[in-house]
Design a protein that fits this description.
alpha/beta; elongated; transmembrane helix; transmembrane; TIM Barrel; DUF6049; about 725 residues; Immunoglobulin-like; 21 helices; five-stranded mixed beta sheet
């Protein structure tokens, strides 16, 4: 130990002894005077972290707890790794990073625990555990420091009772004010000669779902324009980034590593991972049933391509059985809560779709942090009984990757949240040590594999907890049932975070894009199976051998492809309704682009201009098809002139990956110029794809002069006829 550390340890022991003597003297005086005794608050001039309003962190220098021993056992010691970030433009001189605690303090209320986490507590922390020197930190630089407190440390060995303890991490630069981050560590039962009370039962559930889906534009292009014999699965139009895929696979593997971890999986995610050990299935795409009930517009969802058969319990079970290749395989299905709340109507809707058990992750009991109890409810609905498993709010928030409040700065890191989780659960056990309870903790969809692993590893040393499975929780005695349970349900959507305006707008957009895809399959795609005759100038189709086959087979293949197009769109629509704003926007935009690409895959090519030197001519127009199946369309042409006109309409059957040429007749009655507008129409006469324009110029000047000459001659002859009529002599016989 270097000299500075020795001096720091000596001062710590002196301060600890001084505080103890002061407390003893105060106690004696108070007893003599008949005054009640309480633990003194830390004074501002004590050489320990100040607290309350005097210890607001300097925002220009921050501490991040990267690693921390959340549970101290007889053999573990305590270790912390802290990153100090200097956000200023000045260098920080060398300093000291130290750990302080209060070995004798026992938290007395949930409020006191939260106040310590929020840096709003006057709990004294006179017991120094360890300190290390910190080298100077450059402007806008960082420094990572590790502190180790050995298992034989006198302070740790002096802890005689189990439970959570306050832990202050203090950084003191030579040229700046101390910066403190307040967290926790928990002393387990291990090695302590104390009476043990019944363990708190806990069920930990991890959803294997994701809000990180993205549109796979390459798969979209291949599905629309690829080879008809090797088209991708319509489900492949969405996928994950490599990093998200890796994290999901890591999470899927945790079920085997930690058998006590209960995994409820989205079948769509299961398609992208392998060897997932799961206990149950949730609705496809983590569809937000609560938002579905809150909007109460089934026609709008149906128009967007989202039907209850896409997300009911049977759909999830069928998808999973297909993946494992066993039609008799079985897993329980659970309705996972979305952004809305589980009202009576929402529970009834879930039950009507085959879900007998729902998971309430938030805003169900509306009692805030009401401790830990068995939050199982049996609720009768119009469609049958529903069992509600409600998650403990504080522990679930921490396990979902969120701090309990904005002021709880230490909980912004994984290590800080895990430390708070263990301390909070220990306090819940100590709060009602003899009550039989089974509390539910739910992780979040985006809780990383690392955080899940750290929580489960820490739970292994949590001697005050008994980790159970979902079956045990489901068979627990309900906290309320019948009308009593109904009375506890949220009466309205007041706690809902569903953005009904944004969801409605997304559904409207999805409905329009699905109308376009449906229109293509019904009125553009050729499902007759007839082999179209390509024009002499058309490029050879790569599917020529297929086109020579049986007409029925070709027609069936085209129909199946059309169904795949609709399924691809519906997959994006379903994922757009999982409740995540970013994914909703991405999937809605992806569906719109998908429909647009499909319709624009058939287009026309015409001459930019033609010259007509006679009264009749022809105007060729080429229709190109980059799709893997033929299309049957109409081509229209119209001019903005009465003297120069074209024929109006002609049909075109265009082969897969090929072209077809149609010809319009042009009739000219005068010299001049006009523009012909050519459009592609579906078989119902509705325009699609891009519009082309052709300039038609007529050069009939000779015909015009001849007409004028004929008029002049006629006028002269008429005048001569009149003159003769008035000047001739009449015959005597007349």
């Amino acid at each position: 130990m270097n000299q500075s550390r020795a001096i720091w340890r000596a001062l710590t022991h002196v301060r600890r002894a001084g505080v103890a003597i002061a407390m003893t003297l105060t106690f004696v005086v108070c007893m003599a005077l008949g005054i009640g005794f309480h633990t003194p608050l830390a004074s501002a001039d004590e050489s320990q972290p100040s607290s309350g309003s005097a210890a607001m962190p300097d925002p220009t220098v921050t501490l991040t707890i990267d690693k921390l021993t959340p549970i101290v056992t007889q053999d573990s010691g305590l270790s912390a790794q802290v990153t100090i970030a200097n956000h200023t433009d000045e260098r920080l001189e060398d300093g000291v990073l130290a750990l302080y605690t209060n070995l004798q303090h026992a938290f007395t209320s949930r409020t006191e625990v939260q106040q310590w986490a929020d840096d709003d507590s006057r709990i004294p922390v006179p017991d120094g555990l360890e300190s290390v020197s910190v080298p100077e930190i450059d402007a806008n630089g960082t420094q990572t420091v590790t502190i180790d407190v050995g298992k034989d440390d006198d302070a740790l060995q002096s802890i005689a009772t189990w439970g959570p303890r306050p832990l202050a991490v203090e950084y003191s630069p030579t040229n700046g004010a101390p910066i403190v981050s307040r967290t926790f560590f928990t002393r387990s039962w291990d090695g302590l000669d104390t009476q043990r009370t019944p363990q708190l039962n806990m069920t930990v559930v991890m959803p294997l779902s994701s809000t990180q889906w993205q549109v796979n534009t390459n798969a979209q292009t291949q599905l629309i324009k690829g080879n008809g014999d090797h088209l991708p699965n319509p489900a492949s139009v969405v996928n994950f980034s490599d990093s998200t895929q890796a994290d999901l696979r890591a999470k899927a593997a945790l079920g085997a590593r930690y058998p006590q971890l209960q995994t409820i999986a989205d079948p769509l995610v299961l398609r992208s991972v392998s060897d997932a050990h799961i206990e149950g299935l949730m609705q496809m795409g983590a569809f937000d049933m609560t938002a579905y009930t809150q909007l109460n517009d089934t026609d709008l969802y149906a128009g967007a391509g989202i039907d209850p058969t896409d997300w009911n319990a049977h759909a999830s079970l069928h998808a999973w059985r297909t993946m494992v290749g066993d039609n008799s395989a079985n897993r329980n299905t659970y309705a996972w809560q979305g952004n809305g709340v589980w009202t009576y109507d929402a529970l009834s809707q879930a039950r009507s779709q085959g879900y007998t058990t729902v998971i309430a992750t938030h805003n169900f009991e509306n009692l805030g942090d009401n401790g830990a109890h068995t939050s199982v409810y049996s609720v009768p609905t119009d469609n049958g009984e529903v069992q509600v498993l409600a998650a403990q709010p504080v522990l679930t928030k921490l396990a979902s990757g969120s701090e309990t409040s904005r002021a709880a700065s230490a909980e912004k890191s994984v290590a800080g949240r895990v430390a708070r989780f263990m301390a909070q659960s220990a306090f819940y056990q100590m709060e009602q040590p003899y009550m039989e309870r089974n509390t539910l903790v739910c992780m979040g969809a985006n809780t990383s594999a690392r955080e899940v692993s750290e929580i489960m590893a820490a739970l292994h040393n949590a001697s005050w907890l008994n980790i159970t499975d979902l079956s045990t929780l489901e068979h627990s005695e309900p906290l309320a049932d019948g009308l009593n349970a109904v009375a506890l349900l949220p009466e309205s959507e007041d706690g809902s975070s569903v953005d009904t305006t944004a969801v409605t707008a997304a559904l409207e957009s999805l409905r329009q894009s699905r109308v376009d895809v449906q229109r293509f399959t019904d009125s553009i795609l050729d499902v007759s199976g007839k082999v179209p005759t390509p024009s002499p100038s058309s490029s050879p189709s790569p599917d020529a051998s297929t086109e020579a086959g049986n007409a029925d087979s070709r027609g069936s293949a085209a129909k199946a492809w059309g169904e795949d197009l609709l399924q691809a769109h519906n997959t994006m629509a379903l994922l757009a309704m999982d409740g995540n704003n970013t994914m909703r926007n991405a999937m809605t935009r992806g569906a719109s682009d998908f429909a647009s690409t499909l319709l624009n895959a058939v287009n026309i090519t015409s001459s930019n201009s033609i010259n007509v030197v006679s009264e009749t001519a022809t105007m060729p127009v080429t229709v190109s098809n980059s799709l893997p199946f033929p299309v049957d369309v109409k081509v229209s042409s119209i001019t903005n002139s009465m003297e120069i006109v074209t024929s109006r309409m002609t049909d075109a059957v265009v082969p897969a990956h090929g072209e077809a040429q149609v010809v319009f007749k042009v009739r000219v009655s005068t010299a001049g110029s006009t523009i012909a507008t050519e459009k592609l129409l579906d078989r119902d006469g509705r325009a699609f794809s891009s519009t082309k324009y052709t300039t038609i110029t007529s050069a009939l000047q000779i015909s015009d002069k001849s007409g004028s000459l004929f008029i002049i001659i006629a006028f002269v002859l008429g005048a001569l006829g009149l003159w003769r009529q008035f000047h001739r002599k009449k015959d005597p016989d007349e």
